[in-house]
Amino acid sequence: MDEELNVTYVTFDGHVEMNKYRYVYFFIMFTVYILIISSNSIIIYLILTHKNLHEPMYIFIAALLLNVVLYSTTIYPKLLIDFLSEKQIISYSACLFQFYIIYSLGCSEFFLLAAMAYDRYVAICKPLQYPTIMRKSTVSIFLVIAWLVPASNIAVQAIGMAKSKLCSFHLKSIFCNNTIYTLQCVRSRLVTVFGIVSYLDLVVFPILFIVFTYTKIFIVTYRSCKEIKKKAAETCLPHMLVLITFSCLGVYDVIMARMETDFPKIARLIMTLQITLYQPLFNPFIYGLKMKEISKHLKRLF
Fold first, then answer.
1. Which has more confidence, 48 or 6?
2. Boundaries of each G-protein coupled receptors family 1 profile domain copy (predicted)?
3. Which tens digits make up the pLDDT trace of 201-222?
4. Cα(214)–Cα(192) distance, rounded to whole angstroms?
5. What are phi and psi of 4, to 5 degrees?
6. Rounded distance between C-alpha atoms, residue 19 and residue 295, angstroms
7. Whose CA is closest to 285, among 67, 38, 74?
8. Three-class SS state of 295
9. What is the pLDDT of residues 174-202, one digit of tens each?
């Protein structure tokens, strides 16, 4: 803690062999960051510039990929600076802000995936009612809810943590994730209870809704002709792949970050890097290659 400026600094202790491999880390992560920004931005550009992609499903995909760009920009620039710095530190207020942005965007992804699931349900199970149900106003409401509800929930937790007393100033991570809770002397009961409620509202309930919706879709398509089955597989499979990978990484983040035991440092680093790599890198490829209309425009572009 800097007494003169009255600023609390936190040290990232999640790095491995920093002095030996700092330039290797920097080169790899810089390359990955450029790939993430460019690949996601290309899909967003295609969706925005082609009128036949101005449909609810593609708008939700664009929102999802925009989340990825913002999420990566919250993490990677600070990581790159740390690789070239003698000390890997961050002010506690900046750490809380990074935590807030990361989990607001992360939780909004579940809401966007839920909106996609509902869109696919209406398109496949109620095709005649689709134009009247999935109007522009409906899509706008879904987008506002997807970004506003998680942001407001995580804001309450961040404000609660800002008022907590700290007994440790070392994070077992390379960025400000759930391990930030381990810095507190005593975890506030209010923040803990609200965190559990938020986890149910922002993660569990959307996942249950998605599973229920896709179950209904599969039941309907199972009784339908091959053409409808093919259409359902083409549009639903990418969403399911994204949901499964993101859910698995999310569960890891919650469990590992809250564990007080000494987990091997290199294993913790590898798993943490997977959270920052898998979704941002694979999402544009999943949607770019698996979604037929987007794939067509990609081929024309290149």
1. 48
2. 39-287
3. 888 899 999 989 988 888 888 7
4. 32
5. -65, -45
6. 43
7. 38
8. helix
9. 888 888 887 888 777 777 788 888 888 88
Which tens digit of pLDDT belongs to each residue from 239-255?
777 788 778 777 777 77
Nearest-5° Cα angle at 64, 253 to 30: 65
Q: DSSP letters of 125-175?
A: H-GGGHHHHS-HHHHHHHHHHHHHHHHHHHHHHHHHHHTSPBS--EESSSS
Amino acid type, 246: F
Paired tokens of 102? 């990361």
Interstrand relation of 170-171 and 89-91 (parallel, antiparallel or unpaired): unpaired
φ, ψ of residue 85 to 5 degrees: the values are -100, 150
Strands 170-171 and 9-12: parallel
> Whose structure tokens read 């067509």?
296
User: CA-to-CA distance for 123 and 129, rounded, in angstroms?
Assistant: 8
Location of structure tokens 């998605």:
210
Q: For residue 215, which amino acid is it?
A: T
